[in-house]
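Q: Convert this sequence to structure tokens.
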Amino acid sequence: MNLTEADVQKIVSSVMTNIEKKLSDTIPTVSAAAQVEPARQAKAAFGGDHGVFDRVEDAVKAAHQAQANFVKNYKLEDRETMITAIRQATLANRNELAQMIVSETKLGKLAHKLDKLELTAVKTPGTEDLKTLAFSGDSGLTIVEQGPFGVIGAVTPVTNPVETIINNSIGMIASGNAVVFNVHPSSKKCSAFAVQMINQAMLAAGGPENLVTMVKEPTKETLDQIVAAPETKLLVGTGGPGLVKALLSSGKKAIGAGAGNPPVLVDETADIEHAAKEIIKGASFDNNILCIAEKEVFVVDSVADDLIYHMMNNGAYRLDQEELEQVMSFALEANEKQVARGCSLDTKRVYHTVKDWIGKDAMAFLNKLGVNPGKEIDLLICEVDFDHPFVQLEQMMPVLPIVRARNLDEAIDMAVKAEHGNRHTAMMHSRDVDNLTRFARAIGTTIFVKNASSLAGVGFGGEGHTTMTIAGPTGEGITSARTFTRQRRCVLAEGAFRIV
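A:
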């Protein structure tokens, strides 16, 4: 049976409707509903508006008090009830959230914001991610459980502001924590809306308020205050290596999600048409602002022409040399002051991406060039050498450089160098298992996707749960509820506990 794109959209729509109905029908009042009044008292004591505070110290203290109430008076099943409420609220408000994100950040595409919000609502793990380990023997019984840290200080990026708040909140609440967010200043309004939505959803389900808080006007100074606060026991940051380095130097445990410059490799055994479609899907999604997105292509020369042909037939526009130089003239700027910027600590880069062109539509670039392609274009492609700045920069624009390689060995070597040791994400299209294995071992990334777009790596068109915090630098990988826990061992040693 061959399904058209319209058929697929109809099926997806039906599935999402069923999910929303299921979530809506399964939000009971938690067993600790009597704790609503203490939550309201906390709001009166610290001020704030459903988790949004003017002062950092109030946001931290409110979260600290809420978390103490949470672990004392609420059961594990109550956590799941509140998480279900957050999921339902996200789905119910996703249109308004998506519009707010696009309006405030000026990045990406509305339709793809909707996709990401649905993904975080449906595929972020809850309490089912917490597993108990048991040891039983002649000397007794020992169990190891995942316990909360307490209050988590978290930093969110402008590229996925609300999505990260929802994803982090579900995981951190599932593991028994409270969280104080220092959001990107360019997304403070939509982030505040999300924090308020989460608190209102939990409160309506019988939970405590202020488990999720943020400071209304986030700055570098407010982040420093959150990091230094004695109540914050764990730090989680989604951003560039500078942020990760700052959190790791705090003296507290830190989980850091850093930069990426994901390469995609295509060898001569690949299904070239399929590879072209999947590369475009990943590289054009939300105008390439995702850190997992395909940023540069290395293709074995014998199939390069076929790959480019199929990409041009599936929504890509090939820039000629003159057009490429024009794009570089307005989308890149010389690093004359030798400073690091964005997601890199490298002060010696020749170019930086012009901020105003990050996350803009491919059609905006063509309009700037005065080009009318006669159809909708999702991605711009260009043939370049390995040293081209579009290969070396994580530029986060729908401009995808393609580099020819003489053979697989050269392609792997270039891809590993272009990834810059971030060990974030890489993709490969090949029918040869040995070739796939060779590249996976050489690149050593947290996410390695075979014969699919980068989106499959976070559960969008692939199996497994999703996350918006990919902690490659600190080793936690695809974060989830268990990532935000500390192990607690409970030992019963008096007499044997065995019955066999």
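Residues 46 and 58 are 6 Å apart (CA to CA).
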